[in-house]
Amino acid sequence: MPVKDIGELRRSTAIGTFGPGAVVDFRTKEAAVSAVVSGLEEWDRNFKPAGMLNPQTVFEVRLQKKLNVQGFRLPPVRDPLNEHDDEKSLVAVRFPHWLQCPGCDRIGDVNLWDFDPGEAARWCGECSRTRPPSDRQYVVPVRFITACEHGHLDDFPWNMWVQHKEGCTNPRGFLRLRSEQPGLSGIILSCDQCQARRSLDGIFSTRNRVLPPCRGRRPWLADGDETCAAADTVRTMQRGASNLYFPAIESALSIPPWSDRLQEAMGVMWDVVAKSPLEQRPTTIRLLETHLADVLNELELTPEQLSVEIERRLRAHDDIELGDLRREEYRQLNTAVAATGFDQEFEVRPRPVPEEIRPWISRLVKAVRLREVRAMTGFTRIHPVSDPTAPNIARLSVTPLTWLPAIEVRGEGIFLVFDEDRLRAWEAKPDVRERAATIDERYIAEWRERNGNDVPPPLSILPRFLLIHTFAHSLMRQLTLDCGYSSTALRERLYVGTDDGGMAGVLIYTATGDDDGTLGGLQRQGDPERIGRTVIATVQSQAWCSSDPLCIHGRLTNTEAMSQAACHACVLAPETACEHFNRFLDRAMLVGMPDNPAIGFFSGLLAGGEG
Q1: Residue 462 to residue 89: CA distance in whole angstroms
Q2: What is the pTM of this model?
Q3: Which DSSP letter does residue 317 get?
Q4: Can you tell me the distance from the alpha carbon of 34 to that of 477, in angstroms, rounded to the nearest whole number?
């Protein structure tokens, strides 16, 4: 049954934390409501026109070609000037279906509770019998659900778990879930009819089969269930667990020649004009001049000049490197050519590297103006996304669409390149290679356990990767102190290669769509007189952690994190700021070990020399 609005989401979270398939806790004026965000078909159904004809679209040609889509849709928002838009909204489906009364501890399916038509909140009739309507005892979602590694969601099998006694007349009615003692063993599930009782001890066990196979439930999609290819991976999870939802995000910076506003200005007319033959294109533009008049005026082009610009873009389209979009970005950031023509999205300025950090950093670039498009291609549960093409990526729509959901953010940043000669000499040290190999072996073992031996891992955990990733986290922490940004406002973008012409750089940039993105404080930290102090302070701050000696020896790191010397007191960052979900970190790669400082790339800086 449809209900009225139950809450709002920030636009940028609608393709990340709270994207399709995510379980979200809303709060109505009466009670808490838990729901799973519906798939992309609801975007087309509730916010017309459908597909790429919708005005709330963005384009990023390189990313479109890689993901094989025509463009991207922004999370839809209502038009405050259109009174009919008040009826539009994204859709969420109630999940879990089992609810609990805090007063009497009963749990039961949503259909067993009382409710007002059109309202999402449910209340307990037994506890509310003697209360006025304004003081009803509202029920809340249960804490435990089940999920599998292929993204399916289901209610916990409460009736199976309680193990009703033979002849019980309450196989699908109310149960009671009461906390009698601390821990799971003290939470007792019982049936009032047959007096069956069982604790929840063991519901999280993955060693013994305690749950039925996954039923392939997909409550966020209209087509419902499917056959699960990983039915034996189902496990119990808490409804608000952080590993219940990992969005699969692909992103790209807008770089020349794709950073101009040509295609965005043309909108839906781009396909019409671009598909016409070259010799007929000026004629086509003149025939559509009434539709393209604003575009020609905005870009200050004649029909012939517009035709030339379109042809230039189409030819460049064939040269896009689909295998690694970042290599093009790395070249552009290194080249640092000033923006020209109607390019308004990419402006970088090279700066001299301060003498005090020149032995370790070979290039410094201020990114005065950047645009990034982040598209969501799916999501995983239980484990973070390790490969965007893996079969366990859950779908966002019933059938593939010609578009994907995305957001665009504009901001600024600092780009640093590590000295390649010094980096290779450091990587050649046996102790450094051995330390990185420990993490690489764990990562390969985990990958093969989940994906088998046929598909190679998408990452190689090399020393330079651990170094640059950990340095990026440390630099973000220092920049939040130096220029006042919140820790969630900054984001890393790693450029790490493995071949002879390998990349070895990092871009720290503002990654929020609000006013934090354009304050100017971050790119000003790229001035030579500031960045030298910042890098030195970054390295010095990692020489000691308040959790040492446990941290530096890796005693505080979970093996699933694929890190060594890393904890919340030194290098871990908000998950929105990290490309790898706070994995593959080791501050010993920066500063060394107490008994072996030479492991650290910056050990010479700490010693006051070049090392």
Answers
A1: 46
A2: 0.84
A3: H
A4: 34
